[in-house]
From TrEMBL:
Entry superkingdom: Bacteria
GO MF terms, alphabetically ordered: LPPG:FO 2-phospho-L-lactate transferase activity
GO biological process, one term: regulation of cell shape
Organism in which the protein naturally occurs: Cerasibacillus quisquiliarum
GO cellular component, one term: cytoplasm
Subcellular compartments: Cytoplasm
Coiled coil: none
Protein role: Required for morphogenesis under gluconeogenic growth conditions.
HAMAP family linked: Gluconeogen_factor
Designated name of the protein: Gluconeogenesis factor
Length: 321
């Protein structure tokens, strides 16, 4: 059993809206926490900054800094503030601008992230999955190629595989080291092909996941997503990961197993989304341990993982003998 003097090392990999939910709860646990964050986003403020400054995508990093910070709420509100006035700043997030400025001041994107994390009292370490400006592409089952993270789900086609350019992407060395030294690696929920897999397919990251002695756990999405995972079951999500980085990387999958109200399901049906079905036997046949539970919050009209429920469950995986 781990002790406070030697806290268990948990590494969370991902991006999008699901990752901060996990991190907000985990930062308060007695652990050594590291977040490895996607830099493939190209929408909105992030996309404009990438085009104008040629920097890795700051948006997901910004949300992770906010989730792991320990400062007054008003500072987080300021950090997350998005300009809406009709001028050159319209649509920009202040946090994205601060990350761009700090990267310029320090001369390096990661150093900028590190310094801004210090300013915001981040509990844990935040590493971009790569220090490079990456472009995401998807090959569809009909053979067409769609480029750009924000464009892929809009194509409304079945995705065969995703890949990155430049072709020989270098992983951030600290990210690889964190996976190798972890006690638990958590693949966060999020858009499977545009927020999660772009991290896992980076050369060096995939191999680290294959070789790590840590338990690798995937927190499965609760709902399908139009343009990415329509009609996907839990095993389909896991299979997509296996197809991209090799079998036997995922040791366990965490799935929600309680009913979702008809009112919520009806709202999602309007967006052609539905609950992810748990095909337990198929997952077991794939050699993946199935961890089930009620892991969502029932306070909202949308389906969200519950910060306390999921962080407590994840923490329990590293404190048991």
């Amino acid at each position: 059993m781990s002790t406070i003097q030697n806290p268990p090392r948990i590494v969370v990999i991902g991006g999008g809206t699901g990752m901060p939910v996990l991190l907000r709860g985990l930062k308060n646990k007695p652990i050594d926490l590291t977040a490895l964050v996607t830099v493939a986003d190209d929408g909105g403020s992030t996309g404009r900054l990438r085009q104008e400054i040629d920097m890795p995508a700051p948006g997901d990093i910004r949300n992770v800094i906010a989730a792991m910070s320990d400062v007054e709420p008003i500072l987080i509100d300021l950090f997350q503030y998005r300009f809406s006035i009709d001028n050159g700043l319209s649509g920009h997030s202040l946090g994205n601008l601060l990350l761009a400025a700090m990267a310029s001041v320090t001369g390096d994107f990661y150093t900028g992230v590190k310094e801004l994390s210090r300013v915001f009292g981040v509990k844990g370490k935040i590493y971009p999955i790569s220090n490079e400006n990456l472009q995401l592409h998807a090959q569809m089952t009909d053979g067409t190629i769609v480029s750009g993270e924000s464009n892929i789900p809009l194509a409304r086609k079945k995705i065969k595989r995703i890949f990155l350019t430049p072709e020989h992407v270098q992983p951030f060395p600290y990210a690889v080291e964190a996976i190798k030294e972890a006690d638990l690696v958590v693949i966060s929920p999020g858009s499977l092909y545009t927020s999660i897999l772009p991290n896992l397919i980076i050369p060096g990251i995939d191999k680290a996941l294959q070789k790590t002695s840590a338990k690798v756990v995937y927190v499965c999405n609760v709902m399908t997503q139009l343009g990415e995972t329509t009609n996907y079951t839990a095993a389909d999500h896991a299979q997509a990961i296996n197809d991209h980085i090799g079998d036997n990387c995922i040791d366990a999958i965490i799935v929600h197993n309680e009913a979702i109200s008809k009112e919520v399901r009806d709202r999602y049906a309007l967006e052609q989304a539905a609950p992810v079905l748990l095909d337990r036997n198929r997952l077991i046949d794939m050699g993946i341990e199935v961890i089930e539970g009620d892991i969502i919050t029932h306070q909202y009209e949308t389906v969200r993982h519950d910060t306390e429920k999921i962080s407590t469950l994840l923490h329990s995986l590293v404190v048991k003998k």
